[in-house]
Amino acid sequence: TLLMRIADFFLTIPSLPLMIVLAAYVRVDSAPTMALILSITAWAGLSRAIRAQVLSLKEREFIEAAKVLGLRKSHIIFRELLPNMGSYIATNAILAFTGAMYAQVGLFFLGVVPFSSLNWGVMLNFAVSQGGALYTLRSVHYLLAPIVCIVLLQTGAVLFARAMEILFNPRLRVR
Length: 175
Known about the structure:
The protein is built from seven helices and no strands. The protein is an all-alpha fold. The protein starts with a helix and ends in a 7-residue tail after the last helix.
């Protein structure tokens, strides 16, 4: 209950302003630091979704049967619940990756994080601020290249998540 109240608190705070404030106070000089900032804002939604799935699964007949048989809680969790949640967790983790990537690109594009490495957010920032990509047609490819890469990666991640869901969820398989 306490963890869910903390998650509720994090879900009420808008993610992007929280990331901007965290990036301003924490010196982002490496990928692990950036991952920490992104995970601080992203864990609450995933934890709430997993909790809802657990609450749904624990009312199913096979869990009730395992309780009636007197199986240990560890056996029920690791042998009954987790195998049935694997695809759900994997799918939501992949979709959380897409949100984290958007947030990371946004932070670099806004210039909140120092330009210590070259990535798509920095490329977009340079294209808009120094390349004049919004003003001249000759420079628009500087803007389009990272946008196309972001769209392709996001589309690939969503398709991969869907394939994982179909692969591991027998109800979604086509006969």
